[in-house]
Design the sequence.
């Protein structure tokens, strides 16, 4: 890590539509190891929010516990943030979102936080289709406690100490599709070209967006024999490019419908996705599961947008909550007053 | 044996089979007495079961207005052969036993000192009804009709109650009234009515009630109504007996009061979580965002929520938790009452934590304290735990009508708005003690475009919410949290103290549902010239008057419903008086509410007074 963040910025830094420069989306200095994949993801979040012209104070960042969960300190310092307890970010995010539906919720978690202690809350927040973006910074190990295998570690992957992992991995994207996430993508911290548009798409999606981002741990899980090393992931990555066109931009370039699919998101932005084959329909859960399984069998890891359901009901639709956020309601809106109490008392005599 | 005689002062117990519809008939019985203007307190003593196991309903009638359990049974309504042996053994000598003569009595258990009233309940139902469910349900209504004759219940009131109960299902009214009449007629023709124990309306006003303008309500419903009045918009919960009806009632009232007539949308959200951990997380998330949110649970849920309570304490996020206590540890006796979560709640979570606790003793207090709990949680930016219990939460209590002062305004605590942030010239410090009371200022997410954002975390941070492992900064923060807890003493509800007529150095101390039987025990003892001052605790941290009270007495009996005398120990831990020798535990932890007779007996024992009546020895036998 470096010890001081340079104050210097280009005097003519580009501003976005809300008048912010990229710097307005940065956070504190990272305390993660040099070369950590997580820092690349933080940078991708910064790019995505800047380019989408999101006002930083309209974002709430939430996380659990672990290396990944420290990262909300390293981006969007103008946003409120909540670093909660291990594996329980989904419930805090749910309560926060229920209380104020107008903010944009970004949750950051790790494979230890999500796939072990947080498995229950992770599954249930997807079931409820909470309107948020949930990024898993997945490195297959527990960094802060010195490299133990996590539940996403692939079978037969070799740990730094030389132990071979005997257990089945939990595939977060397959789980997400199964239990009700309505936007499911997988990416790689080393592939900014794919990750940034994917984050933008996730933030534009209405409903629960899961991004499982393979993010190598340079200290404990980047050696030969590890399936989650930079080298191994690059070698097996079957990346489907993602092109994100914001709703305000006119679409001018033409594309070949045979190899590219266009997906229009709820807010009017458009995704252009390169198809891996003609059988794969990313708007069909079974088709997505089949494509993921097919590639896994061939020792390839499919990345990109894997599944999307554009017309789902998010939690507020299900709960039928008022469009005015609950946290803005006042005593006048909420308190029935003594007269109603008189009728209650009368009914109990 | 001479049959018992008493007007408006007796205990009747119904022995039923769970799931046979007895609850509504028994409830009607109690409500009819209440409508006659006679103080009554009914209690369900039910199993953790949906259908088939024995269940009881104990009704205390007390002209003096005592609502706790007295101890002893004067009349048993025995309609469950499974529990006959136990039931008959509980009746006091001279008491009555109403039973179903369709099947012969088990003669091995028949006592000579009890008066038997046989009614062919099953036979009457078989004759009158063809449907098997009706045959089962109307058995209960028939015995209520019989009791109306035997005890002198105003029959017109019973008929009114039937009409009210079946409003909207009118065709059920006639058969129910018919069943009442069948029972009434049978009793009138076969027995001398009324019995030695019976009711008489229009007696003098009960001495513990100013006027008989009372309501009959369970604590959980009152708590839920309190949450509505407090402006709670988010309830996150996981079903657990005996707290479930808190959220059920909250939903019922919200449906009436919180649906926007224009859009049909809801000004509230109720989320049934996957577990209690998640429920608490949601409550914290919503409160962090500035909505008033709460959860209701019981002991096992409180254990699961402990980690999050520690976070809310340390990160200073308001939260309201209603703990409707039951008998622990572990699953314990899930349908029996206790006050055994005192320690678990006061010190919930690892590290140095302390939480604000409230101890309601009546439905009216469940209502008012819930409103207060939200104010305290936001003012102090910390969890507040309402320590109710099964007895208070799930049973109907006679209570003064609920009151709400329309001029009262919510205390939302120290929150900086966007405008206030805008006007600020100094740097905002989330954990800066600006006012010297240990309570910092907070901001809601999204309040201001450039000011007021901060990082909430369960890890150590400085006054500006920046992560730190500096021991001095950590200590400063922990000391401020302690100071905040001191500030809480000036905000929480004060204890209720009553001094005896004669000066005394001895006292009773109690809280929550031990209050009612304690006040009754006090009067029993006063009649024997034993005078005691009393203190009813209503909150933790303990206020100054609690310490002064302990200081001023030589011996204080602490009455509570747990094995280890948890409140006594909390008092020793959390007051600055030397009280180890002074505080004497009086505990009951069999899962049933402690009785007045039990309290009086134990205290007599401690005082070396041997005024043990036959009634008391009977009580010991059955306890």
Sequence:
């Amino acid at each position: 890590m470096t010890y001081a963040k340079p104050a210097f910025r280009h005097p003519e830094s580009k501003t976005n539509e809300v008048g912010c420069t990229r710097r307005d989306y940065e956070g504190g200095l990272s305390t993660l190891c040099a070369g950590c994949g997580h820092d690349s993801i933080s940078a991708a979040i910064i790019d995505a929010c800047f380019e989408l012209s999101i006002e930083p104070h309209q974002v709430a960042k939430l996380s659990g516990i672990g290396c990944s969960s420290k990262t909300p300190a390293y981006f969007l310092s103008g946003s409120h943030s909540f670093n909660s307890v291990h594996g329980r970010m989904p419930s805090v995010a749910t309560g926060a979102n229920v209380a104020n539906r107008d903010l944009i919720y970004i949750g950051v978690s790790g494979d230890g936080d999500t796939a072990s202690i947080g498995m229950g809350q992770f599954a249930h927040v997807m079931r409820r289709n909470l309107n948020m973006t949930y990024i898993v910074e997945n490195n297959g190990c527990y960094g802060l406690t010195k490299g133990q295998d996590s539940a996403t570690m692939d079978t037969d992957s070799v740990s730094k100490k030389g132990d071979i992992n005997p257990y089945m991995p939990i595939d977060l994207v397959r789980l997400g599709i199964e239990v009700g996430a309505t936007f499911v993508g997988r990416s790689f911290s080393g592939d900014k070209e794919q990750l940034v548009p994917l984050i933008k798409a996730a933030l534009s999606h209405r409903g629960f967006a899961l991004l499982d981002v393979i993010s190598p741990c340079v200290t404990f899980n980047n050696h030969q024999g590890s399936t989650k090393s930079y080298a191994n992931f690059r070698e097996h990555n079957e990346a489907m490019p993602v092109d994100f066109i914001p709703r305000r931009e006119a679409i001018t370039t033409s594309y070949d419908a045979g190899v590219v699919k266009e997906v229009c998101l709820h807010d009017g932005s458009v995704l252009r996705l390169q198809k891996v084959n003609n059988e794969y329909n990313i708007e069909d859960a079974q088709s997505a599961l089949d494509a993921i399984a097919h590639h896994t069998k061939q020792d390839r890891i499919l990345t990109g947008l894997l599944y999307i359901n554009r017309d789902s009901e998010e939690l507020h639709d299900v709960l039928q909550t008022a469009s005015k956020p609950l946290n803005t309601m006042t005593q006048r809106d909420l308190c029935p007053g003594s007269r109603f109490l008189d009728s209650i008392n009368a009914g109990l005599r | 044996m001479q049959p018992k005689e008493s007007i408006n002062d007796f205990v009747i117990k119904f022995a039923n089979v769970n799931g046979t519809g007895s609850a509504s008939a028994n409830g009607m019985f109690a409500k009819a007495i209440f409508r006659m203007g006679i103080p009554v307190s009914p209690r369900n003593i039910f199993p953790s079961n949906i259908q088939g196991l024995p269940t009881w309903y104990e009704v205390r009638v007390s002209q003096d207005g005592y609502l706790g359990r007295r101890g002893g049974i004067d009349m048993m309504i025995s309609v469950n052969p499974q529990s006959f042996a136990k039931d008959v053994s509980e009746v006091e000598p001279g008491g009555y036993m109403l039973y179903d003569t369709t099947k012969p009595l088990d003669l091995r258990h028949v006592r000579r000192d009890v008066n038997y009233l046989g009614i062919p309940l099953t036979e009457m139902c078989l004759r009158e009804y063809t449907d098997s469910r009706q045959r089962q349900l109307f058995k209960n209504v028939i015995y209520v009709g019989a009791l109306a004759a035997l005890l002198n219940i105003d029959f017109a009131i019973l008929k009114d109650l039937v009409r009210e109960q079946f409003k909207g299902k009118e065709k059920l009214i006639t058969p129910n009234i018919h069943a009442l009449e069948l029972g009434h007629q049978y009793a009138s023709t076969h027995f001398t009515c009324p019995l030695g124990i019976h009711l008489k309306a229009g007696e003098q006003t009960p001495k513990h009630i100013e006027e008989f303008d009372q309501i009959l309500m369970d604590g959980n419903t009152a708590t839920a109504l309190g949450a509505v009045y407090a402006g709670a918009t988010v309830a996150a919960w996981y079903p657990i007996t005996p707290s479930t009806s808190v959220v059920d009632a909250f939903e019922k009232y919200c449906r009436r009061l919180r649906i926007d007539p224009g859009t049909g949308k809801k000004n509230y959200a109720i989320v049934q979580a996957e577990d209690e951990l998640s429920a608490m997380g949601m409550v914290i998330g919503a409160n962090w965002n500035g909505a008033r949110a709460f959860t209701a649970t019981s002991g096992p849920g409180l254990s699961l929520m402990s980690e999050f309570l520690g976070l809310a304490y340390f990160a200073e996020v308001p939260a309201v938790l209603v703990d409707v206590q039951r008998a622990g540890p572990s699953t314990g006796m899930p349908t029996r009452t206790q006050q055994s979560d005192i320690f678990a709640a006061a010190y919930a979570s690892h590290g140095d934590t302390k939480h604000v606790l409230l101890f309601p003793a009546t439905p009216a207090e469940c209502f008012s304290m819930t409103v207060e709990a939200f104010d305290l949680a936001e003012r102090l930016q910390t969890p507040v735990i309402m320590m109710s219990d099964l007895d208070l939460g799930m049973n109907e209590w006679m209570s003064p009508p609920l009151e709400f002062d329309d001029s009262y305004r919510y205390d939302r605590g120290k929150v900086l708005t966007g405008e206030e942030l805008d006007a600020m010239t100094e740097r905002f410090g989330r954990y800066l003690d600006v006012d010297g009371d240990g309570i910092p200022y907070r901001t809601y997410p999204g309040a201001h475009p450039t000011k007021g954002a901060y990082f909430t975390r369960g890890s150590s941070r400085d006054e500006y919410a920046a992560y730190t492992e500096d021991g001095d900064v950590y200590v400063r923060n922990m000391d401020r949290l302690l100071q905040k807890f001191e500030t809480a003493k000036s905000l929480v509800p004060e204890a209720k103290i009553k001094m005896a007529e004669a000066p005394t150095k001895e006292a009773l101390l109690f809280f929550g549902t031990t209050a009612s039987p304690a006040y009754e025990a006090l009067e029993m003892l006063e009649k024997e010239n034993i005078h005691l001052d009393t203190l009813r605790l209503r909150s933790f941290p303990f206020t100054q008057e609690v310490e002064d009270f302990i200081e001023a007495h030589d011996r204080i009996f602490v009455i509570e419903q747990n094995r280890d005398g948890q409140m006594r120990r909390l008092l020793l831990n959390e007051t600055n008086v030397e009280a180890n020798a002074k505080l004497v535990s009086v505990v009951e932890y069999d899962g049933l509410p402690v009785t007045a007779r039990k309290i009086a007996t134990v205290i007599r024992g401690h005082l070396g007074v041997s005024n043990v009546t036959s009634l008391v020895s009977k009580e010991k036998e059955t306890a």
User: Anything to note?
Assistant: Chain A touches chain B through 59 residues (CB under 8 Å). The CA atoms of residues 155 and 168 of chain A lie 5 Å apart.
